[in-house]
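Hey, quick one: can you model this chain's 3D structure?
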Amino acid sequence: MKSFMQKFAKSLLLPISTIAAAGVFLGLAAALQNSAIVGEAFASMEGVQNFIGFIRKLSGLVFGNLPVFFAISIALGMAKEEKATAAFSSLIGFLVFHLTLNYLLKLDGLTAATTSLEYLMENQGLSQVDASIINAKYGTVLGYFTYRMNVFAGIIVGLVVTYFHNKFYKIQLPSSINFYGGKRFVPLVTLVGIPVVAFISYYAWPIVDSIISTLGKGIENAGAFGPYLYGSLNRLLIPTGLHHILNQVVRFTPIGGTAVIDGETVVGALNIFNSAIGSVAGVSNDIVSIGSRYVGQGHMISVMFGLPAAGLAMIHCAKDKNRKKVKALIAAGIASSILTGITEPLEFTFMFISPILFGFHIIMYGLGFMIMDVLGVAVGGVQAGLIDFTVFGLFRGIDTKWYLVLVIGAIMAVVYYFGFRFIIEKFNVMTPGREDEEEDEEPITEAVKDDKLSELIVNALGGKDNILSVENCMTRLRVVVANPKLINEKALKDTGASGFVRPTKDNIQIVYGLKVDQIATDVKSYLKNI
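Sure thing. Here's the predicted structure for all 530 residues.
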């Protein structure tokens, strides 16, 4: 189960990274169409504004089709082999899933016309509030009127199709029909199996939707404590990599909030934020803050201020003879954290060394979310580093209260710095550079050729025969091995790894930071050629 959850969490990263990039473009486009920011002269330049409007439409394409991207990404990430076939089958499955729901809804007399606000209010005699609640349960996906399941539909289809694929992609049929065997059988079984899943979902989803809505109201009623719970739990899950799953629940379900934007009901923190900044009608920052309370400023407090200050404290606590090497190690993590919001290179320098430091970080991280929510800050962004702060804070104007991020961030930096220094010195925590004995060998630098580095990594993992699979997420190389006893962690450290996670005895995650994508590609290529 742990291995499954790891692969599932990793498979969600591809669409999320696309959202992050599209969100930046959407934020820039929104700023460039705001006359209060760029001036009336620029905002009235028809040709330029038409082009910027097209950029906003492109970004909207990403957000509007996120469920199908999830379905395809899960199939790509979790298929054992023949990933292209899995992705193709997942797209077919997604279409069939919503076609089936559309057909079942139509049999019950539920269409876009009969669930519209006007029809419900005029023909059913419902109030606007009650009509809005019913109307919000349905939507149109790729032309099909269907349940508004958001990314859940993509996740369900992706998981089911992946199961079909891994079970049947090598199937052998009788010789007379074996043309349809193997990978060709997967789309066929998808066409048969997904309607059954859709039929079950037709009756199960209203129950699930009700439960999710109740949870969402519970967190909403918790006030500022809701963001605190989310922030703290998010950091607590970092060592397992399962924080990505928590993120998706908050970003794309009613647990992350519900808002009406441009006459449409939008659910999920990230959906609300992106819809709000993408609205051409103009949306108040009160609406934007509903989404950004879970997406943006709370994370910024730690990644731009808190964790860099913690890194500085670890540098200052290192022994004099080791400080230069520690500074080089920590500085890269600080830069990554501030600019991109990637925190793991810094967090892995202390989270396994000291539960006290990690606990302190969990509490402070949650407080950052809660304080920003209490103050009504409306600065968002998926990665929530300096780039997102600039695009979604500075460029969107003073009403976002971006200045409070700087004020509270500065205070948080002081608390992090002295908190870390006190804990490290009080409990003699062995953060980098404080060990009694330092290794003489220097870590392998990026100057080492890719094939040489790949060879070192493969050898440190016990050789080609010991490696069952190699994947990666945003910062970690994820490897499944046959015999974990053959892994040489010291040799892996020498290749530039900043930490390790072992979710199961056969799984090891090696933290390389943002360069891991290239490392994974090189290692896979090396394994094929030896």
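One thing worth noting: Confidence is low (pLDDT under 50) at residues 437-448.
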